[in-house]
Structure prediction request, 785 residues.
Amino acid sequence: MKTKTVLLLLILCLGHHQLSASDIKGRVLNKHKQPLPFTTISVNPGELGAICDNNGNFVLENLKNGTYNLTISYLGFNTIKKTINLKNKDLNLSFILEENDENIAEVSVTADRYAREVKMQSVAAVKVDQQFISENASGSLMQTLSKIPGVSSIDVGSSASKPIIRGMSFNRVAVINNGVKLEGQQWGETHGLELDQYAIENVKVIKGPASIQFGSDALAGVIEILPSNIPAPNSTVGEVKLIGKTNNDLVGTSFLIKQRKNKYYYTLRATYLDFADLMVPKDSIEYNTYNLILNNNVKNTAGREAAITTEIGKLFDRGNTSFQISNLYRKTGFYADAFGVEIRTQIPIDHDASKRDIQIPYQMVNHFRVSNHTSINYGENQLNTNIAYQNNIHNDYDHLTDITGKTQVFPDDHLNTGLQLHTLSANANYKIKWSTATLTSGFSGQYIKNLRSGFNFNIPAYEKAIGGIFTHYQKQLRSETFFDAGLRYDYGFIDVEEYINPRNQNETDSILSTPINRSFSSITGTIGISSQLSDKLHGKASFGKSFRVPSIRELSAYGMIWSSARFEIGNPELNPEEVYQLDGELSFISEYIDLTGGAFYSYFSNYIFPHPSGGFNDIVGAGQIYNYQETEAIRTGGELSLFVKPNANLGFDVLAEYVYALNLDNNAPLPFTPPLSVDASVNYKIKLSKTKAYLLNTFLGAKHMAEQTRVVQNEVPGNFTNASTIVYLGVSGKLGTKSQSPDFMLRVDNLLNTEYYNHLSIYRRINMPEAGRNIQLTVNIPFGN
Prediction:
């Protein structure tokens, strides 16, 4: 009898609980009735919450009767607050969020799912959109992204530049273009990114190890080019962009058209740039006892660039698929004396004949890519696949000597080094989503074949294959707290061909490249947390291990790299680089202030670097010998960004970054470490009419680069780089009040024509300053419906 009574009471209690509990279901859309995935739904009291799925839907389950305050927030949109009363009845709600035109976090203004994902990730990441790219446009994508704290570039002339994240570059930074890892000759300073920056709409920058998803080369971070926005249904839109710069007399244009009919769409982007020699605020430089006359002109740095990108896609009920084809051609000259041409050959070259001609030495690059991206939804789960083929041709032309430097040779084509890289790649991941958790598992793989040609030798022919499997788990612990952890296994091999100098076969130094057949493997992992600590405070932290396979340059280089002004000798015994990194970030966001500070600490068990020996090769005019070594090392530092907006029109920005690098074997600095830099600016919006669409955005700023004295012996002339400050200003806006009105951007860089030096530039090694004053005008003319 007692047992029956207890059971009856339990049934009554459970029934009462079910009757007094309700569910709230809802959907969040923008004003175009498009879903806003990853919108945050917060509930008070109770500290409950939910995150919208890919369709903008959310569910709050088992809420007791009572009054609740709901907060619906999405980065870049105005927050909605709503009070509801629950009385034993489920609710179905719908919310329309309006875009916030006054969002102060300029590097995170894009209101889409990527911006939300950046906040949820435990690693430091920044998302920028097309507006940011347009307002900060410079000679290359990486020069443009240098506005982000912790990001800088290695520049060669007007168009070639390489990404640097927290002081590291080359094969330590992965560049992902629409899901495919970009493969060129990224081991070299003059091998810039083969990307059309005008074809890029959104970029995500991950600062710190991202090897779990992207593999070996993501040790320092990732530059991820995100997919372009799909056109609206039954629309045709486009733009014509006109570009001009005064420093190197650049003229260019970029044309875009997008069209969609029902479920089919295509985009086409074509860009052409033509530029003359770079101008610097210096009459002459001294290098290696030579006095080199400039007359403010860096001779033979003119160039041309042509790029075309097209995408054809189809949307279907459960996802989409698209094919993208791109080709970029670039021909650029190099300052002859940086390559030792006139010093080495004593050949008079009339580089003063025209500022727009391209004479020897010069570089020709052609990068072709074809890829497919497919995304399929299975309810809340999602499958993503990417496959691609890339063909990268990189030829350097020069007046030539043989390997001894003692004999002049002049092949008809003047081909110094010819490299052709074929890359096949594939990756896939499957996301399984629950109400508060996501599990992503997948694989990625690459096969690379490099062919060489040309008179001189510095990089051998080789084959390389690497692949990995990974899994990553993310759990929402409470409303705005996310825990994540990941694990990855990689395996790869590299097969290097032997190369014997055909003109020197009987001498002891005839073998320039020994055969290498090695395999590499590693297990990497990460763990982290991201949390909204209060209404205004957000924090994240992560710890992980990453690894990197040595590059072909580090293993097998042997010869003069004229573009780097040094003779390099690789080390075939190098081990895979391994690093353990602790990373943290804290953000304070209020109505008027956005303050973010980040710090990192990296321990390398075997950091690989080129060590300047102090000795010189016997090739006439050649630079000193650099030997690749590995050492135990640490790299630490941080970034700071401050945005202050006292009212709707006025804003102040301060961006700072610092890197400290130490060789633990000899307690000395590591070479090629960027100095402390601080960038401060003020911006003001001027309303020219009553409508918000007719604005002028003006800005004035200065960037200070501190003196860099933490160098290794013989790293740069004088063994330090002086401090410098450059000033810039600009204005942008629309030339009308209609949605199709043209817009423009006018900016002046190095306003005071200051003589300053980039510590990481290859031209720094011959005492060449950076570009002088440059006035840039871009006009964008949109069209379509």
Notes: The first strand starts at residue 21 and ends at 30.
